[in-house]
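User: My collaborator sent over this chain with a note saying "see what the structure looks like." That's all I know about it. Can you take a look?
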Amino acid sequence: MGIEHCYLYGHSMGGCISIEAAGLLEEYLLGLVVSEPNFHPGGGFFSKKICSYGEDEFIDSGWQQMVAQDSTPWSASLDVDAPWAVWRGAASLISGNNWKDLFIQLPIKKQLIFGEYSLPDDDFAFLTGSDISTVILPTCGHCMSWENPRALAGALSKFCK
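Assistant: Without extra context I'll predict from the sequence alone. Here is the result:
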């Protein structure tokens, strides 16, 4: 694509993906920001709910049930995803990796963002005491991109300047 340098951002499961990608793209990255990533194996609420179904059952009926039952913007995202990819992504979060250590070890500029309603969090507290930048977004929790998009955009913009 001709991109010589960039910043990378990932939220939640995307945080884990961006940590893995950053390890492959180090020389191209100007920095990495993650917001409320799954730093540890075991998955989060939705991953566990998704994997409470077997893969075939989720593809056949569980995926559509989750789309129909969720009234948040997340359901629109889920609705356009391939059910098999959703299930396998959730399963990979549950089987997991130690993404916190990978994040810490990356030799690039990094930042961790949390919504104030998601705190306290042990990983956030640990990294706040390190040389890694941490930011708390006001009046939001895990769903910060629709709960307080202005604050999230501001934090990302400030990091990239």
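A starting point for your reply to your collaborator: The first strand starts at residue 6 and ends at 11.
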